[in-house]
Amino acid sequence: MSTKKTEIKAEGFTTRATLKNAVVVGPPAAGAFRERPSKPTTFRKLYERGEFPIALSHDTKGNRIAWKVDIETMDYHHYLPLFFDGLCETAHPYEFFARQGIHDMLDHGGSKILPVIPQLIIPIKNALNTRNNQVMCTTMKVLQHLVASGEKVGEALVPYFRQILPVFNLFKNKNKNLGDGIDYSQRKRENIGELIQETLQMFERYGGEDAFINIKYMVPTYESCIKN
């Protein structure tokens, strides 16, 4: 409880009024780290309609995608953005198919990947903006694979840093501190703070001469992994 003074202005003069027992309420929580549920993805809708040439296969190493066509013959402009749209998914089998489908297509895409970069930015941004730890970690690993997937791909991402790096700056210090305990998230590579640092370093390595200054503009505390 506190006493709060307010000013009342009327007809050219000011009078002060004291409100006894007034409760001063602080600003509302910004909720910057709060998860933001995503809407049903186009990827899920099309998968349920059977419009992807994929099936689930089991072997001694676990689950994998059985492709019904040669990946290298696929239309990357059509399919790759749809798989990236599925990054927001957290439920099985959608999350698995989207994540593994992206990695498979990046492994076999070669020169087909670079022209599709502008179509991938909105799905990437949407995934990061969920603030969901699982989704963000998956997206960081995909981004690391993406920048190394083909010539000039890393440089093509630099103009879009202003769209995708604000969330990096927000979560960059989200490292779990368990003292002497074992952080199992590190074993599984699900420590978002470390993944962000790894991804920024890859952005710098593969992004060309303008990468560092553009990273530094959006993430002021980032230190070069090349110059240092």
From TrEMBL:
One of its GO terms (cellular component) is cytosol. InterPro entries: ARM-type_fold, Parkin_co-regulated_protein. GO terms for molecular function: Hsp70 protein binding; Hsp90 protein binding. It comes from the Eukaryota. This is Parkin coregulated gene protein. The lineage of its organism: Eukaryota, Metazoa, Chordata, Craniata, Vertebrata.
